[in-house]
Write a structure and sequence with these properties.
Layout (H helix, E strand, L loop, with lengths): L1 H32 L15 H20 L7 H14 L3 H11 L4 H25 L5 H29 L3 H31 L14
Helix pairs in contact: 1-2, 1-5, 3-4, 4-5, 4-7
Length: 214
């Protein structure tokens, strides 16, 4: 047992090294080209040649990494489309990734852990960019951070207690299904009311659709 654990340690370290390398690439890419509503720290203009060069290098590196570490349960193409859909529609990747990974046969606890790490990587990289361009209001950020951390801690504690009490990991599946259903309904209702309000005010509800560089 000890020998097996010792043999697995280098592989675990390598996996974490890859993960932090990807995270570092995300941070550097956002800092160089700007993104998530914040500008570039080196003055790269949006949609300029330097902007697309930085974007292309980051995308190529991420795709190459995905091709080398592919898993049959989570095809790189599908994951790429999920990320694109999440970015275009403006919803959290977890709303799409959770059901996709559960449908692929991953364990519920593994799914929640994977999606949590993914969200933490993307959110933290964007946060660093906002902080460096002085676009973060300190007090509201600290309040929201504390509230989010407390909510996550309470949720993790309650779910862990339910799983240990019932002995069923399916509790996580039902909770995820409930959250996804509520999120879907909320987005639909908000979108419908937004369109109705825009029409009532004589505005075009599709005015926000424009070219990438528009």
């Amino acid at each position: 047992g000890a020998a097996t654990a010792g043999a697995g340690a280098p592989e675990a370290c390598l996996a974490w090294l890859k993960l932090f390398t990807l995270w570092g690439l995300l941070v550097v890419s956002l800092l160089l080209r700007g993104g998530k509503g914040a500008g570039s720290v080196v003055g790269v203009r949006f949609c300029s040649q330097a902007y697309w060069l930085a974007t292309g290098i980051a995308v190529a590196f991420l795709l190459a990494t995905a091709a080398r570490t592919r898993r049959p349960e989570a095809p790189p193409v599908v994951c790429f489309l999920v990320g694109m859909l999440s970015a275009v529609v403006g919803m959290g990747g977890g709303v799409v990734l959770n059901p996709m990974l559960l449908g692929a046969g991953f364990e519920p606890m593994m799914v929640t852990a994977t999606v949590t790490v993914l969200i933490a990587m993307v959110s933290s990289s964007a946060t660093i960019n906002f902080v460096l361009v002085d676009a973060v209001p300190v007090v509201p950020t600290l309040v929201l951070f504390a509230a989010t951390f407390l909510g996550s801690f309470c949720g993790k504690t309650i779910v862990g207690w339910l799983v240990s009490r019932t002995g069923r990991n399916s509790v996580v599946v039902f909770l995820l299904a409930g959250f996804i259903a509520v999120s879907t309904i909320a987005v639909l209702v908000q979108g419908i009311f937004g369109m109705i309000t825009a029409y009532a005010e004589g505005k075009n509800p599709f005015v926000d659709f424009h070219s990438v560089c528009g």
